[in-house]
Write the structure tokens for this entry.
Amino acid sequence: MKLTFLGHSAVRLEADGHEVLIDPFLTGNPSATIGPDAVNPSHIVLTHAHSDHLGDTEVIAKRTGATVISGFEIIEYLGARDVSGHPMNPGGGYDFPFGRVTFTPALHSSSFPDGTYGGVAMGVIIDMAGKRIYHAGDTALFSDMGLIGRKGLDLALLPIGDDLTMGPEDAVEAAALLSAATVVPVHYDTFDLIRQDPKSFQRAVEAETDSRCVVLEPGSSLEL
Ligand code: NI
Ligand code: MN
């Protein structure tokens, strides 16, 4: 499986001919290296409705026919705009052609750019090609990450930007609770508000937990 960091919180997963996007914020994302025309997903997974996660979802879904997988309120909203979706909520899992998606809690808000309520913000676990990946979405540190960690994670994508999500110190604590084989920091440096030093986060994770930490430049990939 190939995981590509598309900048901010956006990730592309590719395996066995399947392409899945998570939180495809590309247009208007200063750290994105590709635009919405360069992706061709069958499914788009959204953690919440904020514009830096919803991003180009509608445009990409309409061009490719991709199915959006997200919370009930988000799917209702997009459905009214002729985007096909699969509604879920925290704790629920479902088997898709590319693998299994299970949403988790996250401590964060969720509303659309026009103010419409977006349901609860979530994290997500994706089982694909024999790998288990956790994308925490936007969240604070919470102790139930320890329960998510018990599932056995190959990789955890954790926000470290601070201000809008947990910062690096709490993200190291999150990494300790999750005990994923590999941790990748996301949601930093996109805007001045969330400037961080990912190398210092990497050193802290590798000193204080058993996880390897990989800092991915936007546009770069990791083979799992
Ligand atoms: Ni957010
Ligand atoms: Mn965000």
